[in-house]
Structure formats: C-alpha cells, structure tokens
C-alpha cells in the first residue's frame, strides 16, 4: 500500500506541533530554573561529574538500592534509550518508506534489531510490574495525586512498545524485511503469524506506524507538562551532583548578604530548583524519613514536589518580578512545623535515586525563620542563648568545661605547649553531660594506656556550633566556628580526635570554610587502629549480645560504618547482632539537626521507635559511638522500662572494660 501524497505534509505539521510544544515548555522550565537567585558552584570537578553522569545518570546506580524497583525501572529506561535509535528510522519511513539509519558497519543492524525487540518486551514486563505495584500492591508512598499521571505515562510507554512490535510484525508479514535480518526480529516474526497484522499486513503496517509515531511524539509533547519531567531532568541532576563533603552546609556570607535563607522558591539556587523536575515521586525519601515514620508533619517528597508546583504556578509572576502578595513557601511548599521536625539524618538524600538534596533546603527555610523572622521553638531559643553565654547548650559555666579531666593526668594544650599526637576535642556532651563524661574519661584512659600523646583545650574549647547551624542560626554558628578556628590555629593544632560525630563532622567538613583545616578522626577510627597495632589488647570477656546503633553523622555523612564494629568484634566472647535498619539504612536516634534541644510533642518519639529496633534483636547492650545517640538511647530505655534489661554503652566504655 503506497503512502498517500499528503502524508509528508501531515507528518511535518504533526512533528512541528509536538516538538514545538516540547521545546516551548522546556524553554519555560529553563527560564524558571534560571530565576533561582542563590549561587552554587556546580561546574567544577568536571571529570568526576562526567563519571557521575555515566554511573548514576546512565547506569542509574542508586535506583538499584531497591533491587526489584531497580530492575523494573531499568527495563523501562533502556527501552527509551534503544527505542530512541528507532524513532528517527521509523519516523523517516513516513517520508521514505524502507529508509534505514546508516550505521558504521552493516552487521550492527541485526543485533540492534534484536536488542530493540528484547527491550520492548522487557519494557512491557516492567510496565506490567509497575501497574501491579500501583494497582494491586498499592504502597502508601505511591498513592499521591501523581498516581493518575503515572498511569498515563505507563500507558503511553506500553502503547509505544506494543505498536513498535506490531509494526515490525506487519513488516514481516509484508515480506519487506531483508532476508539477512529476518532472524534478528524473532518476537515480531512470531507476532506476524498470530496477531491481527496477519489479516491485512499493508493496512496494519500503516496503522501501527501511525500509532507508534503518533504516540511517541504526543508523549514528547506531554512529558514536560506531566509529573514525569524526571525522564528529561534526572540525568542532568546526576551531572550537577554535590561535590562538597556531604556533611558541609553551605556558608552564608554574612557581611555581603541582606536576606538570609529562603522563604520564596526563587531564593533557592538553580540546582535546588532542578530537584523538583528531577523527582520521580518514588517516595523513597519519605519512606526513609524517621520524622515522617513517627507521625511528624514532615514529608520530604512533598517538599520537593510542592517546590516544583509552586515554581510552575508562581512562575509568570516570578519572571515578571511581581511576587508581592504571593503566598510564601511555608504556605505552599511545606508547613513550618514539619521544617522544625527534621533531624537532618540525611536518609532522604541518601535514598533519593536522582540525587535530590532535601536537607540544604530545610536548613535554608530554617535560616529564613531564624534570621529573618526571629522564629524558632522556645526551647531551642533557650539553647541558643546558653551557647551565646556559656559556649555550650547545657548552659553550664564555660570555665567548667575541663572539670571532667581533673585528676586524670590529662594536660591542656596551654600546659604542654601543644606537643601531642592529637588534640582530644571533647565536645559539649563529653564536657558537661554526666553520662558522657564517663565516656570521654574511658576514651582518655584507653589513649593513655596505648601511649597516645594527647591534650585537651579545657576552657578554651567552645561548642563547634553544630546545633546552631542546623537550627538555622548561621550567625551564632559562624561566631563559634571563627573563635574555635582562631584557638586551634593559635595552638598549632594539626590532628584532632573526637568521640562526637557531630563535632567530627563540623571540624572536618565545615571548619575549612573558615580557614581551619585539620586532620580529624573519630574515636572509633583511632581505637580500631590501636587495636590493629596491638597497642590495646582486650582480655576480659564481654559475654553479651550487643547491637550497634549507627550515628547518622558518622555513617551516612562520613561513611564510617566498619570501625565501631571492628572495636566491638575485638572484645572477647562478644556476640554481635545487627538491627534490620543498620549501616547506611540506619534509623536516626532523633537528636540531630538540633532536635536534641527541641520538645518532641507530635507522634511517637523517634528514640522510642529506634529502641524498638534495638529490642527486636534481643540484644543485652546497645553500643553507640556518639554522645547524642547515647543520651537518646538512655532516655528511651528508661522511659520504656527496659532500663534493667538493656545496657547502653559507648564502644570506648566497652573496650575500656575489656582491657
Ligand atoms: S534529613 Fe532525615 S528527618 Fe530530615 S527530612 Fe530527611 S529523612 Fe527526614
Ligand atoms: S525526592 Fe528523590 S527519593 Fe524523594 S520522591 Fe523524589 S526522586 Fe524519590
């Protein structure tokens, strides 16, 4: 059946309309993204970015953190890639029937045709799995308003791959496939005999050609209006990945900035806004959020999706510079209550398959509330006051900081002139909290026993500022950071060891922003090294079942999972057991992000939920490597009446007992 003479004209008009709709929308989105005012450096480290583009964008490494979903997604993704090659060829048939894309070597046609058919079938399987998931399994995280849109997208893809196979089948039935390629199209060869195309191959060749081309280009026109713009933008996000240390919050230039933080979407950066268009609405972030899991009004996925919707809705006004009177992000993106509920545990960012960054946005929104509106929960405001007055959140006199070390033979840097292997950064919890004073004393004893030369700063040490920065009080954080960097540099400090992951993260990853660059290690790392070198030899048995609770600031932020476990494994007769949520899937204790200093009045307490994970293992001891985690576990055990059956101990205390 010959092509009608009008076909090229109709086809050209159709392509012009659909591609035009796509480009118009694409240009509009790019203009909206460029309206983002905050600046971020995302054009550095080009070779690492290209690596990330390949591994995370093209090969979709992070999608495989959930294996069934990863397989399902990869079928659909690769269908797109392979079918992309066939689009040009099939569309061109509307102008020149039988035209083939020139490939460097003709022998490549066969494998390409086979790949196309296999991937089309795999895509159909992937879509069937996705439909079963959405309509039969119905996980809560997928039951949002994007549900219908997701179904439309799946149906589009199903239509595209089905029409491709039937188009190929019609080619078989018409006998127009060159003999050497017939065997490379086995699936459509089979369909040629058993499907509708056998009835009238010529007619159905045109029907399925029109269906395929029509669906493909209609899908192109639709996609950027749908909630599935991630098909275009997720891969871009993988290139503009964060190359700074994960635990470093972006500093504000307090001298040169007039408005702090963000209350309007356009106050975010281009990259932050891009997250909204890259989001697949998979719900993994919300699924992993401890605040959400315990009933707090915090939903990291909604934060990202609502940010995009707000940008689209308010876009014309933003581009025209007429935003006066428009509702701010606390009304359209995320309520304030949820913004305070975040523990900054980083699980959402870690789980996100498209590298969206929720935590910096939450901190920016907190910065606006704190620095522009003077708002924060009253108990947090009280903590900030204590840090301002006595340089610690406990509010105990600053001159008492070194008291725990009295009589233990521990010099200060001032006393020994800085002749040390390590400065022992004690931190506020170790200095002022009764329970954690025992931990730092145990760690100090271990260092003395192993012959490590160390000293403390005593009353010269101040809070690192971590709680202030995470609550949004950048001004107080920078005051603390600059004072500490001045002291550390004046004392000639090169190497620091600390038992607090929050201090560790801030000293290691954030102080370089203020001229303080040191070699910083966590006590778990030093203890593991001393054990390895034979400088510490545990002899007394710790005959108990022990589970280790991962600190978010040690694990997800700084990739330290093994060393605390190495310390535990070195204890004679110990029996270790892992919680289901452990290592990079660990569940927060509820204290990070300055939550330690805020009341938890909504839902179940995060530390109580974590305690349930501990008790499920039947452990007699929960081991920690963070003073905040220890306080939270202690509190939960006492409140939930397992004080007697479950001991709480830092890894240093357990090792100290054993040596
Ligand atoms: S950082 Fe943790 S608490 Fe905050 S939104 Fe992400 S998962 Fe939830
Ligand atoms: S932000 Fe990331 S993890 Fe959350 S729904 Fe979107 S793609 Fe999924």
Briefly summarize what is shown:
By secondary structure, the chain is mainly alpha-helical. Helices cover 55% and strands 4% of the residues.
Describe it for me?
The structure is a single chain. The termini are far apart. 55% of the residues lie in helices and 4% in strands. The model has no long low-confidence stretch (mean pLDDT 93). The chain folds into four domains: 7-34 and 66-239; 265-372, Fumarate Reductase Iron-sulfur Protein, Chain B, domain 2; 380-531, Rossmann fold (3-Layer(aba) Sandwich); 538-658, Rossmann fold (3-Layer(aba) Sandwich), CATH 3.40.50.10700. The protein has 29 helices and eight strands. It has a four-stranded parallel beta sheet with strand order 2-1-3-4, with helices on both faces. A four-stranded parallel beta sheet has the order 6-5-7-8, with helices on both faces. Helix 24 (501-510) links the parallel strand 3 (495-498) and strand 4 (519-522). The protein binds iron/sulfur cluster (2 copies). One iron/sulfur cluster binds next to helix 12, helix 16 and helix 17.
Index terms:
single chain; 659 residues; mainly alpha; Fumarate Reductase Iron-sulfur Protein, Chain B, domain 2; Rossmann fold; four-stranded parallel sheet; 29 helices; 55% helix; elongated; binds iron/sulfur cluster
């Amino acid at each position: 059946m010959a092509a009608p003479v009008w076909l090229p004209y109709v086809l050209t008009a159709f392509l012009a309309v659909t591609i035009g709709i796509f480009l118009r929308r694409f240009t509009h989105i790019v203009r909206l993204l460029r309206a983002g005012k905050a600046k971020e450096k995302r054009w550095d480290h080009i070779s690492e970015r290209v690596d990330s583009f390949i591994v995370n964008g093209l090969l979709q490494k992070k999608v495989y953190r959930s294996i069934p979903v990863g397989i399902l997604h990869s079928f659909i993704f690769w269908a797109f890639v392979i079918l992309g090659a066939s689009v040009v060829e099939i569309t061109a048939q509307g102008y020149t029937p039988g035209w083939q894309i020139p490939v460097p070597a003709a022998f490549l046609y066969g494998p390409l045709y086979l790949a196309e058919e296999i991937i089309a079938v795999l895509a159909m399987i992937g879509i069937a799995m996705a439909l079963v998931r959405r309509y039969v399994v119905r996980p809560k995280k997928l039951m949002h308003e994007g549900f219908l849109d997701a179904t439309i997208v799946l149906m589009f893809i199903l239509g595209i791959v089905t029409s491709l196979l039937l188009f190929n089948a019609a080619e078989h039935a018409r006998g127009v496939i060159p003999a050497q390629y017939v065997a490379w199209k086995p699936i459509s060869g089979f369909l040629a005999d058993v499907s509708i195309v056998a009835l009238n191959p010529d007619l159905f060749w045109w029907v399925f050609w029109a269906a395929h081309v029509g669906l493909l280009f209609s899908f192109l026109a639709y996609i950027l209006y749908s909630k599935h713009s991630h098909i275009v933008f997720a891969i871009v996000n993988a290139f503009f990945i964060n190359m700074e240390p994960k635990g470093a919050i972006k500093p504000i230039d307090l001298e040169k900035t007039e408005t702090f933080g963000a209350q309007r979407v356009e106050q975010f950066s281009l990259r932050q806004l891009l997250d909204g268009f890259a989001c697949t609405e998979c719900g993994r972030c919300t699924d992993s959020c401890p605040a959400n899991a315990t009933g707090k009004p915090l939903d990291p996925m909604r934060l990202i999706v609502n940010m995009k919707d707000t940008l689209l809705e308010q876009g014309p006004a933003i581009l025209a510079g007429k935003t006066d009177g428009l509702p701010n992000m606390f009304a359209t993106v995320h309520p304030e209550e949820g913004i305070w509920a975040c523990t900054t545990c980083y699980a959402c960012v870690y789980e996100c398959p498209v590298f969206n960054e929720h935590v910096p946005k939450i901190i920016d929104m907190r910065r606006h509330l704190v620095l522009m509106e003077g708002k924060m929960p009253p108990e947090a405001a009280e903590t900030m006051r204590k840090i301002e007055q006595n340089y610690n959140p406990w509010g105990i006199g600053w001159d008492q900081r070194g008291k725990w070390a009295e009589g233990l033979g521990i010099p200060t840097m001032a006393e020994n002139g800085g002749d040390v292997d390590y400065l022992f950064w004690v931190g506020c919890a170790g200095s002022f909290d009764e329970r954690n004073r025992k931990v730092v004393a145990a760690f100090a004893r271990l260092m003395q026993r192993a012959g490590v030369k160390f000293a403390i700063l005593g009353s010269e040490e101040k809070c690192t500022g971590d709680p202030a920065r995470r609550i949004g009080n950048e001004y107080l954080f920078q005051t603390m950071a600059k004072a500490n960097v001045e002291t550390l540099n004046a004392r000639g400090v090169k190497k620091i060891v600390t038992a607090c992951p929050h201090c560790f993260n801030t000293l290691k990853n954030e102080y370089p922003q203020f001229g303080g660059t040191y070699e910083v290690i966590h006590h778990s790392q030093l203890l593991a090294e001393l054990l390895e070198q034979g400088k510490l030899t545990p002899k007394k048995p710790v005959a108990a079942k022990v589970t280790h609770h991962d600190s978010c600031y040690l694990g997800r932020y700084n990739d330290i999972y093994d060393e605390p476990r190495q310390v535990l494994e070195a204890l004679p007769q110990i029996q270790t057991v892992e919680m289901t949520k452990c290592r990079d899937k660990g569940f927060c204790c509820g204290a990070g992000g300055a939550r330690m200093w805020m009341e938890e009045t909504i839902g179940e307490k995060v530390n109580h939920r974590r305690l349930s994970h501990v008790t499920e293992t039947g452990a007699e001891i929960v081991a920690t490597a963070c003073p905040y985690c220890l306080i939270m576990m202690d509190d939960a055990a006492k409140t939930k009446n397992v004080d007697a059956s479950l001991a709480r101990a830092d890894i240093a205390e357990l090792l100290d007992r054993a040596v």
